[in-house]
Design a protein that fits this description.
This protein is of the alpha+beta class. The termini are far apart. It has one domain: TATA-Binding Protein, CATH 3.30.310. It has a 4-stranded antiparallel β-sheet, with no helix packed on it. About 45% of the residues lie in helices and about 30% in strands.
Length: about 80
């Protein structure tokens, strides 16, 4: 998280949380199986388009680094999980 958002995460009940740019809160935790991550976000609406674009770019890069999957690959995997 520090690498992509230049923010020191705070640990809270097994979750790591930061606030950055258009993200009022980004919370990451490890799933019960130890093989997945749980991501929760809370957005700010009072920021410029430039801040939103920068935050989204960093968020996508972070998820790709953490999961090893591109956005397209993550969408495909998510659809498979939902479909069963």
């Amino acid at each position: 998280m520090k690498e992509f958002f230049n923010a020191e995460p705070k640990e809270h009940d097994g979750r790591f949380e930061i606030s950055y740019g258009a993200l009022q809160c980004l919370s990451i935790s490890i799933g019960n199986n130890g093989k997945s991550i749980i991501v929760n976000t809370e957005s700010r609406t009072d920021v410029s388009d430039e801040v939103i674009l920068d935050t989204n770019r960093r968020f996508r890069q972070y998820l790709e680094k953490v999961t090893g999957y591109t956005t397209k690959e993550r969408i495909k995997k998510s659809k498979k999980l939902v479909e069963g």
